[in-house]
Amino acid sequence: LGQPVRPGEEIVYRRVRVFQGKILTPEELKRCLEDRLCLYTRAAAVRVEGRERFFFKDTRTAQAFLRSVQQMYAVKWDQPVSFREQVQVVVRDVPADRVTSVEDALAAVRRGIEEKWRYTVKDGDTLWNIAAAQGLALEDIIAANPGMNPDRLSIGQVIRLRREKPLLTVIQQYEVTKVEPIPFSREIQYDRRMHRGQVRIVKRGQPGKKEITYRVTVENGVEVNREVIATRELSPPVKQVERRGSRYLLASRGEGRANLGWPVSGPILSGYGMRWGRMHTGLDIGAGYGAAVSAAGSGTVIRAGWYGGYGRTVDIDHGDGVVTRYAHLSGINVGVGEAVGRGQVVGQVGSSGNASGAHLHFEVLINGVPRNPLNYL
Ligand SMILES: [Zn+2]
């Protein structure tokens, strides 16, 4: 040890008479004392949360040990470190064999200490939710409870739990400043002169920059918390302006050729216009009962159901004021709000509502007014 020791018991010297053969040589006396005497030495005890965990030969060594633990876990050399636990160094006499070296004590800190407790199984518990709630690995619980059947827990059953816990927790708090982007917003302008799906970037957006200062807390080298303590805008983001096409049809007020597809193929039984003194607002296309009716263009379903004399009806909004209507259906395949593609089956030909026989009544409405579908097909 390189320092004075004293015996734990008092040694008394007395003059007695013995036989010659019982007198010990100095070497024999030494061996005898080593076996029987507990030697005490003055040592520096390190108390963690009130419990003496380590003994060093002096206070300086104890302090060097504590500094080494802090260095072992520190992430920022230039920032202060502290222990989460209450740590004290006290000087007292301890059995000499309990004094350790700094290296051995550091190894013990790295190993940690085992924490043990018990858990009583409650109604509805599974081993998995117990493990999750207690922050343990399932295999560790199984290993700590030999003979337990993990699939059959009973209420009131006591389970042994244990975990390795660090003996000392080194805390470091420091600030970091980072430059981060600020996302830009978009302004969308719809343009009737451009086709749907076309996008033109009028003004390109630029992310801004902000400087954020965080306070970071690290425990034994692991980041456990990061809070924003200051934010400063370095440059504002620039909004992106996009122009998107909203034109679905070519201008087709009778003169142009448009791009709606035929919803069913068949003869035109009755055209758009006056019929027996009444206006016929659509096209009657002959097709067999149950024939598939497909969307004339892509759009959004705005009606799907019974609609008076039209019977079962589907209306599709194609944007730009264009709506197509499919009436007298026997079945409907789509729902209101559903996006449909051109050619997608929306229902079946039938004779529901005011219809004399199976046919499709097809309408094209521009801004709510029925127009001659033939100008758009
Ligand atoms: Zn009709």
UniProtKB/TrEMBL annotation:
PANTHER family: L-ALA--D-GLU ENDOPEPTIDASE, PEPTIDASE-RELATED. It comes from the Bacteria. InterPro entries: Cell_wall_metabolism_enzyme, Dup_hybrid_motif, G5_dom, LysM, LysM_dom_sf, M23ase_b-sheet_dom. One of its GO terms (molecular function) is metalloendopeptidase activity. Keywords: Signal. SUPFAM superfamilies: Duplicated hybrid motif (SSF51261). The keyword Signal applies. Gene3D superfamilies: Glucose Permease (Domain IIA), LysM domain, Resuscitation-promoting factor rpfb. This is M23 family metallopeptidase. The keyword Signal applies. Residues 168-248 form the G5 domain. It comes from Ammonifex degensii. Residues 117-161 form the LysM domain.
